[in-house]
TrEMBL record, chains A, B:
This is Prephenate dehydratase. It catalyses: prephenate + H(+) = 3-phenylpyruvate + CO2 + H2O. GO terms for cellular component: cytoplasm. Keywords: Amino-acid biosynthesis, Aromatic amino acid biosynthesis, Lyase, Phenylalanine biosynthesis. GO terms for biological process: L-phenylalanine biosynthetic process. Transmembrane segments: none annotated. The keyword Amino-acid biosynthesis applies. Pathway: Amino-acid biosynthesis; L-phenylalanine biosynthesis; phenylpyruvate from prephenate: step 1/1. Pfam families: ACT, PDT. Residues 1-153 form the Prephenate dehydratase domain. It comes from the Bacteria.
Length: 247, 247
């Protein structure tokens, strides 16, 4: 197990063959897609998704002592957003300070023992930086999950319960085909293939030019849809055909 | 003109009637949608979009002195990502440090005059924090634009060149309608209404539940499509029918 600081670096190191599998966050139920991961995979990687793991996210308030009344609370903007109501209600006097990551927030609290400060983050961050948990599970919305994709050559043995099978594709549409997206979606719809998600991401060439990430429920008819898409001049990249596991 | 620290607060203050217009970033050509703005508009606002303004984004390197050799360079993760190649090539020794905003980076540089540090941000940040520009226009990709939405009761006079007219909608699909998204898109496609963008955003209730933001080229037939959508049980919210201006 090797932790790496940023998501693009995880993918870069995996592409260089530094390890057999890479685990990257792809989507959170509250914040939405992790764009930096999706873009890196599409633009600068040929990696294949071999499994999806859905993990519940739990936020905690942590400090050097359990009895601290924090004047300032540090965390990543998303973690602060996810615990905003709780912090407003229980710590109305505390100033919320956004920093670049929850780990950096915990590290900052550890390094400033004489200040009345706290951080919001997961239990591993508290353990790693020797902080005490002041309050557990403080996220405002109970249902908070993150989807992770496991990149690899083949699926390893995963000791979690399997829920269903999925196929993820990236589509690039021809420039001058009116209604191209409608045609692409139709190839799945008329075959009764269930599309669970569509997401547009900028091609980074010009504002208004996109590629599309599409998730489909696993289905034998997908291969015929892919043939039809190709004949329409739509470029399809198979990101992976994989099982979903609940963490 | 009143600057406000975060995008959700801009929308909240606008909803409270604190000012007549609010300008919020919606999408960047490289980074993609500004999810926090779109979600706030959808979930906690009834504001109407009265204009779209597309502005070029220029990143600069700034410090207290022009002759500084920065050991550390601070900025928002997106600004660092947008200037990564330039900084790697010209400042291979500098450590890149992500902070919560480009303004915070510039402020930090101003407040630490004895350190060899710099920030990446726009010219206004340099002016405001009395920093000198070491290098101008250092973004790696030339074409870098951000779309802003102007919220208001009606369109003000805008001294910029108008390019085209658009309609933006938010759709929520019925739970148990197979192929609902395909049906929704078909109501536009078969009428020849040009859809320029579709984006899925989490409903924040459960992983895998989305609402959709759809951009259409202005067209008289849109009202008929909206009637058809309603009859299908698809909930449509009109975000705005507006003109696009190039900044």
């Amino acid at each position: 197990m090797l932790p790496i600081e940023t998501i693009p670096e995880i993918i870069e190191q995996y592409e260089l063959g530094r390890f057999d599998y890479a685990l990257i966050p792809i989507e959170n139920s509250i914040e939405g897609p992790v764009s930096i991961a999706i873009d890196k995979l599409y633009h600068q990687s040929t990696a294949t998704v071999v499994a999806e793991i859905v993990m519940p996210i739990v936020q905690n308030l942590m400090a050097l002592s359990e009895n601290i009344k924090p004047l300032k609370i540090y965390s990543h903007p998303q973690a602060l957003a996810q615990t905003r109501e709780y912090l407003r209600k229980n710590y109305p006097e505390s100033k919320l300070i956004p920093v670049a990551s929850t780990a950096m927030a915990a590290e900052f609290v550890q390094e400033h023992p004489n200040e009345a400060i706290a951080a919001v983050g997961n239990e591993r961050a508290a353990d790693f930086y020797s902080l005490k948990l002041i309050a557990k599970g403080i996220q405002d919305i109970e249902e908070n999950n993150t989807r992770f994709w496991l990149l690899g050559k083949n699926e390893p043995k995963i000791n979690l319960s399997k829920s269903s099978d999925k196929v993820s594709l990236a589509l690039t549409l021809p420039e001058n085909m009116p209604g191209a997206l409608h045609k692409a979606i139709s190839t799945f719809a008329w075959r009764g293939i269930d599309m669970t998600k569509i997401e547009s991401r900028p091609l980074k060439t010009k504002l208004g030019k996109y590629f599309f990430i599409i998730d489909l429920v696993s289905d034998d008819k997908i291969s015929f849809a892919l043939e039809e898409l190709e004949s329409l001049g739509i470029v399809v990249r198979m990101l992976g055909a994989y099982s979903i596991y609940e963490g």
